[in-house]
Each structure stands twice: as structure tokens, then as C-alpha cells.
Amino acid sequence: MAPDAFAALSDPTRRQVLDLLYRKERSAGELGAAFPSISQPGMSRHLRVLREAGLVRVRPEHRLRLYSLRTEGLAGVDAWLAKYRGFWESELDALEAHLDARRAARERPPGPRSP
Amino acid sequence: MAPDAFAALSDPTRRQVLDLLYRKERSAGELGAAFPSISQPGMSRHLRVLREAGLVRVRPEHRLRLYSLRTEGLAGVDAWLAKYRGFWESELDALEAHLDARRAARERPPGPRSP
DNA sequence: CGATTCTATAACATCGGATTTATTTAACAG
DNA sequence: CTGTTAAATAAATCCGATGTTATAGAATCG
Predict the structure, then answer these.
(1) Closest nt to residue A107, judged CA to C1'
(2) Residue A59 Cβ under 7 A from any strand D atom
(3) Average pLDDT, stretch A62-89?
(4) What does the alpha-carbon distance between residue A90 and residue B88 come to, in Å, rounded to a whole number?
(5) Could you confirm whether domain A5-72 is CATH 3.40.50.300?
(6) In this complex, which of B71, B78, B104 lies closest to A93 when CB atoms are compared?
(7) What is the pLDDT of residues B49-107, one digit of tens each?
(8) In whole angstroms, what is the distance from residue A67 CA to residue B21 CA?
């Protein structure tokens, strides 16, 4: 697992790039065109970060460089999350929140009832 | 969903804090002590980032502030990942990688055979 | 070959995040 | 109320990531 997959995903633009690549390879230029506010070298750098994080694959074709999703990096993130998934899928989490709220209310009543 | 959960998770220290909080609430001081290389205010700021990302909950008790996991933020990350999960759980991804490798080898033979 | 197209890299500016020291707020104990 | 402990905020610094312009590299076409 690439240790910086989280860092790569921390940028919204890069997440959007991945969304564009969902099941559909696209050229670097195509991806750049999807973000008019970012220069061509800017997109190229984003793609490099994604590449080095193992999140995309690149393949030369004709004059283009075609990028596609490579889920290794995402699988690493998913593996980290997996530890917690059972936690919120059980309703333990919500239950604790509820108990916390009750306890807080008990310890600090809303009205000026107790001196 | 807190939009900056990804950003919060991009820092390794914060991920380790979440690991420490797995099913076990801990005080701010306890968490700080687990990272001797980080100052008290430094940890406090990390905790704030986690709080604002909806990843932890805090509860005052005695003189301490007890932090615990709050999976809302993680669930948001998980929801984003979910879109891709089916993709790598099927072996479509590995298959494509294989085909890419074959195609690349065909288009660009290893030896300096062709002028 | 020379021109053109597509993309990556270099060099540089800038902005934000991480960290630190110093200070403040909050909750108690005496 | 005074002092003490726990934790958050303020202010300043530092470093890395993002973004830009300019340039280089790679493939293709005429």
C-alpha cells in the first residue's frame, strides 16, 4: 500500500479526477479540460501525485497519455477504514452518543434548578 | 458529512489518534502523552481538526476532556469509497492491469529489435 | 527533417498546515 | 478567594504543497 494515498485523496481536485476516471480511461488533456481553473502543468502534477500514490495507471496511446483508475491505493485506504466499519455499522456509535447526551444533560441541567 | 474528513485523515498523527480511540475514550492529556514528539498545544490542535471533521466527540469529565470516536466523518469517507469498492472487489481491475501489460509489451518490445 | 501536438519537468512564488512558546480559560482543591 | 492542574487559544515561525510561467521531451504528421 502506498502510504500517501490518504494525502493524495485530501485534495478535492484529485478526488474529482478519480471520479472522472470511474470505469472510463481519459487522456491527461481531457482531465485538464475538465478543470478550467487549473493550468496544464498543474493538472500534470496532480496526476503525478495520483500515480505515485498508486491510484491511477497511465498508458501511452497515439499521442495521448491515457489515465485509468487503479484501485490498489484505494484498497489500502479501505483496509484502514475496515477496522472502524463494524463500529459504525453496529449502532454502538449512535448508542454511545445517546448515552453521552443523557449523561451530559444529567450533569448539567438546562434550568437554574440546582444551586 | 464534514467535507474535510479526508483532509483530517491525511495526517498520520491524526490517524494514529483515531487508532488510539478505537473503542476506548481517552483524555486529551493521555493522547498527547502517546506522542512525545508533539507539544501539548500541538495535540490540542490536532484534536480540534478531528473534532471539526466530525471524527471525534469530546465530553468533559472531572477536569479532563475525554475524547471518543465518532464515526460520522468516517462514514462519509466510506460512502465516497463505496463507489469504487465494487470495482476492485470484482477482479476487473487486475484484469485490466494484465491486459495493459500485454498491450504495452506488444507495442514496445523489450529488445532493440526494431530500428 | 521540421513543424505540430500533447504532456511532463524546472524554477519560482505563494499560501496553508504543522509546530512551538507564551498566555488564557476552565474546573476543581484547600 | 488563591493556587493548581488540564486543556484550549494566540502569535509567530517554518516547511511543504499548490499553482504559475517557461521550457523540454516525446510522438506524430507533412
Answers:
(1) C27
(2) no
(3) 89
(4) 25
(5) no
(6) B71
(7) 999 999 999 999 989 999 999 988 899 999 999 999 877 776 565 666 555 555 544 44
(8) 38
